[in-house]
Design a protein that fits this description.
281 residues; alpha+beta; Rossmann fold; 2 domains; five-stranded mixed beta sheet; 10 strands; DUF3037 domain-containing protein; DUF3037
Amino acid sequence: MNDLFTYQILKYKSSIVAGEAVNVGVLFYFSKLNHFELVKGDLKRPKSIFPDFDSKLVNHYLDIIQNRIEKKKINFSKAPDEKSIQQYVHENILAVDAAGLVFDAPVKVTEGLDSIASTVSTYSQLLLPGTNTIQHTQITHNEKYLLSRYWDNIKHGYEGIEEKLTKNKIIETKTVSLSFDLAWRNGTLNHVKPLSFDLNKSKDIQNKASLYLGYLTQLADYAKVNKFRFDFLVSKPQNKQFIDDYWNALDILDYDKNAPKRIITEDKLDEYAKETIKDLK
């Protein structure tokens, strides 16, 4: 995994005057996925060092930090530097030295391990002594994830490409209306829409595929007349229990051969981004 990431150590300071501190957590930020992740340390260690350490209170603030990470809409217009990340954390995650907790300045790392999970696990065990088990937060491969991957690739690969893209394109006919996140032209006007099947119920996967088959059927003739193509960025379930449902969903999407469409699975997403850049240059 070659993406840049940063980490910030969360420290408990028993006394501002004495300056004594112990690590109680690590906050990771993976810029390509716009993803924060907090790892909590073993609070038995600071308790053994500082007898007045209030583990319940610190746990409470750690939960607050976790909730803020999950609820906040991260919005960086470009890959942030350490100062931007520190400011974001100060304004949105932990603004004051609550219960003696304070984040160190971000440290940027230019090379991770083979996955986010292994990176988080390895660095957490180095930075949080006594921490043996890391609970990794799985990143849902939802529509936001798909669009972010595609958008980051084309922005970094072609400066100024935004001028050649249309955002939030809506196609309306007498019977149906469907919005697309991006559109770009190369002969046909290609409408890009992320479509996540990273779901936890077979029926939900089937229903979602059937819904979009209905859209495609309704829009097929209109698209042909106007030289449109529908490009769906598709993710699969991370739970392997639903892989067969995913393949069935792709068959459903492809059922109407009359509809001008293209299905880009997530393993082909980076390749599709390069193709977009090449066609728009």
